[in-house]
Automatic annotation (TrEMBL):
<dbReference type="InterPro" id="IPR000055">
    <property type="entry name" value="Restrct_endonuc_typeI_TRD"/>
</dbReference>
<protein>
    <recommendedName>
        <fullName>Type I restriction modification DNA specificity domain-containing protein</fullName>
    </recommendedName>
</protein>
<feature type="domain" description="Type I restriction modification DNA specificity">
    <location>
        <begin position="3"/>
        <end position="167"/>
    </location>
</feature>
<comment type="similarity">
    <text>Belongs to the type-I restriction system S methylase family.</text>
</comment>
<keyword id="KW-0238">DNA-binding</keyword>
<dbReference type="Pfam" id="PF01420">
    <property type="entry name" value="Methylase_S"/>
</dbReference>
<dbReference type="InterPro" id="IPR052021">
    <property type="entry name" value="Type-I_RS_S_subunit"/>
</dbReference>
<dbReference type="InterPro" id="IPR044946">
    <property type="entry name" value="Restrct_endonuc_typeI_TRD_sf"/>
</dbReference>
<keyword id="KW-0680">Restriction system</keyword>
<dbReference type="GO" id="GO:0003677">
    <property type="term" value="F:DNA binding"/>
</dbReference>
<dbReference type="GO" id="GO:0009307">
    <property type="term" value="P:DNA restriction-modification system"/>
</dbReference>
<feature type="domain" description="Type I restriction modification DNA specificity">
    <location>
        <begin position="203"/>
        <end position="376"/>
    </location>
</feature>
Length: 385
């Protein structure tokens, strides 16, 4: 298939329509950068001109591309689904349909090639911005309009598949949230005076965390020429992930401790943000500083179940009320106070059943994310051909 090299400035233009009185001219909706999601072509929200009275005068029409020129690394560009006005930090783009297929155009704008160029040509330290005249220099190798139509159809099918998978992920998250709340939501105290003993179900026990958790410490004597894997407990209960591998002589904090598979890690400075998780097998043998607390489960507690329990609102509050500090980013966790908190603990068989169900749902959602990544790889390949 023959292709020709075409610059972006030749496949689209920047219509500079304005309105000094949007409501009078029939524009009742507006778009700011906050209304555009990163890496999404779809607008899911907007503002009301009548209610918010924005000072925006730049007009866009249905079908135009709204391209965020401020902080282009956020990759914000979406197809307008209605007429309206928008922020001056948005470039309005209209396809030249005699040169480019209108269905293909949005995918070209959202390609890595465009974003890379936008980031490279943006100027300003605190809030870098790109310009249409700079974006216009991006070159595409495109077939004729018939070939473009075929490419657009492939990309639209990928987009539809991605949307379907994303809907599955969202439904799975809602199911996880519902199941977690139903099975574990009432196992912690909802107020300081809440008497857990009075509402403890038959077969369950009221225990303090220190009754079922044991703090472990495995000091490591660092060798200058040995390599050590390091980890991080991600915020928002994102789990424990690998960081860099460092030579012993380059580790600044010499007080390091080994972690093993199945340990429960708490980042004492990030726990108010959900910085905790269970160490996976792949990270067993890594090291952490004393900025982390490391725990094992005693008999009667399934650690996988516990990693879900701490995500419930009441147990998340336990982390917050047992941390001290004025600034949210500098609060320090008081481990001993936290360990004195009480919870209702179901029988171990029920714990394992709950954890198994939640883990299976989580694995399914992760599998769907893998499908999304694969679809994006195919899309990137098609656009680079």
């Amino acid at each position: 298939m023959n292709k020709q090299v075409i610059k972006l400035k030749d496949i689209c233009r920047e219509p500079k329509l304005t309105s000094s009185d949007p409501l009078k001219d029939g524009y009742d909706k507006y778009i700011g950068l906050e209304h555009i999601d990163s890496n999404s072509l779809t607008l899911s929200r907007w503002g009301s001109v009548a209610q918010d009275k924005p000072s925006f005068t730049r007009v866009f029409k249905k079908g135009h591309i709204l391209f965020g020129k401020r902080r282009p690394y956020l990759r914000k560009a979406a197809i307008a689904s209605f007429d309206g006005v928008c922020s001056g930090d948005i470039i309005v783009l209209e396809a030249n349909e005699s040169v480019v297929d209108p269905e293909l155009f949005p995918f070209l704008i959202h390609s890595n090639k465009v974003w890379s160029h936008a980031i490279k040509t943006s100027s300003g330290s605190l809030s870098p911005r790109t310009k249409f005249k700079d974006l216009g220099q991006v070159e595409f190798s495109l077939p004729d309009l018939v070939g473009q139509r075929m490419l657009a159809d492939d990309l639209l099918n990928i987009q539809r598949n991605r949307t379907s998978v994303e809907q599955q992920v969202e439904a799975t998250y809602q199911l996880i949230s519902s199941l977690l709340q139903k099975t574990c939501g009432s196992l912690g105290k909802y107020s300081p005076t809440d008497n857990l003993d009075e509402r403890c179900p038959k077969g369950s026990l009221v225990v303090r965390l220190k009754d079922v958790l044991v703090k472990v410490s495995r000091p490591v004597k660092l060798s200058d020429d040995s390599e050590y894997g390091t980890v991080v407990a991600r915020r928002a209960f994102g789990g424990v992930e690998a960081r860099e591998v460092i030579l012993g002589k380059n580790i600044k904090v010499k007080s390091q401790f080994e972690i093993k598979e199945g340990d429960f890690l708490i980042s004492k400075r990030q726990i108010v943000h959900g910085g905790c998780g269970v160490v996976p097998k792949s990270l067993s043998g890594s090291v952490v500083s004393n900025e982390y607390d490391v725990f094992n489960a005693k008999d009667g507690l399934d650690m996988s179940f516990f990693s879900w329990l701490v995500k419930t609102p009441r147990l998340r509050n336990y982390f917050f009320i047992n941390s001290v500090g004025i600034h949210i980013e500098k609060m320090l966790f008081k481990t001993d106070n936290w360990l004195n908190m009480s919870v209702i603990l179901p029988p171990i068989t029920i714990q394992k059943t709950i954890a198994k169900s939640l883990n299976e749902l989580d694995s399914f959602s992760r599998l769907q994310f893998g499908k999304i990544d694969h679809l994006e790889e195919i899309k990137t390949y098609l656009l680079s051909e």
